[in-house]
Write a structure and sequence with these properties.
- The chain is an alpha/beta fold.
- It folds into three domains: 9-120, Alpha-Beta Complex (Conserved hypothetical protein from pyrococcus furiosus pfu- 392566-001, ParB domain), CATH 3.90.1530; 140-214, no CATH class; 226-258.
- It has helices spanning 44-55, 83-91, 109-119, 126-138, 153-160, 169-176, 178-186, 203-224, 229-247, 250-258; strands at residues 15-18, 21-25, 29-30, 63-67, 77-81, 96-102.
- It has a six-stranded mixed sheet.
- Helix 9 (229-247) runs antiparallel to helix 10 (250-258).
- Mean pLDDT is 78; it is low at 1-19.
């Protein structure tokens, strides 16, 4: 008796089980921009590197995906982690990509993607880190449980594992989620930061001060690199003029003393 012919790939669409792994057809993977945690999207250079490695026979870790509808497998999956690997596989002419399929709600996907990118892949930019923070809050990570309780800035910073410091986190919270910030303030969850910021200063003011200090440091560093005296004098005059415009005549003395 002839051996039964193995089912074709399309008959198992969109999943193909092979040992302890699952292959998902590329045309069954939904690339939802809301889940992509990197502000710049995929890096063409990284995709090319992965493509070259795939053509050379390198094996990559599986991507992470979540079913669009847990009750209907034919609707495919949202891609959570593995955007560069998926794009490289597509360019390599592959039909499928190996994947771990997990269960999660749609609102949790950006935070799941953020957690994955916090531990591997390209270094996160400041915009990426801010996106991770927003995804964390939108997924409810800031809450103490299923109720309305809110974690302290320190606990949230610990959850975010270096994405943002406990001092900077309230600044972001006040700008991005003012209602959560008010709950933190009302609940005394910012008391631990009193030594960092006087009571009459706002978080936004503090962030602006930090940004201006960094910019001033860069101005000083740049001026010190100018060897030509005439050019240096022009730059110092320009900075002094800007300082006077911002803060009055006393700023002129400060700028001249610095340079």
């Amino acid at each position: 008796m002839a051996k039964a012919k193995p089912p074709e790939l399309k008959e198992l669409w969109p999943f193909v089980v092979g040992g302890d792994s699952i292959a998902i057809r590329l045309d069954a993977i939904v690339l939802n921009p809301e889940v992509q945690i990197r502000a710049a999207g995929t890096s063409p250079a990284t995709v090319r590197d992965y493509l070259d490695a795939m053509k050379a026979g390198s094996k990559f870790p599986p991507v992470t995906a979540v079913q669009v509808d847990p009750s209907d497998i034919s609707m495919g999956c949202h891609l959570v982690d593995g955007w560069h690997r998926t794009e490289a596989a597509r360019r390599a002419g592959l039909q499928t990509v190996q994947a771990k399929v997990i269960q999660a709600e749609l609102k949790e996907l950006p935070w799941l993607a953020a957690q994955a990118n916090m531990t591997h892949g390209l270094q996160l930019t400041r915009k990426d880190r801010r996106g991770c923070f927003r995804a964390y809050v939108k997924a409810g990570g800031h809450r103490t449980g299923r109720g309305s309780g809110v974690k302290s800035a320190k606990v949230m910073a610990d959850d975010l594992k270096g994405i943002v410091s406990r001092h900077q986190l309230p600044v972001w919270m006040e700008k991005d989620f003012p209602s959560v910030f008010r709950a933190m303030k009302t609940g005394g969850l910012l008391d631990e930061l009193k030594e960092f910021m006087p009571a009459d200063e706002s978080m936004v003011d503090r962030e602006s001060e930090i940004a201006v200090r960094a910019a001033v440091d860069q101005i000083k560093a740049r001026v010190r690199t100018i060897a030509n005296t005439a050019v240096r004098e022009r730059v110092v005059t320009m900075v002094a003029s800007a300082a006077r415009e911002i803060g009055g005549q006393m700023a002129d003395v400060i700028v001249n003393n610095d340079f």
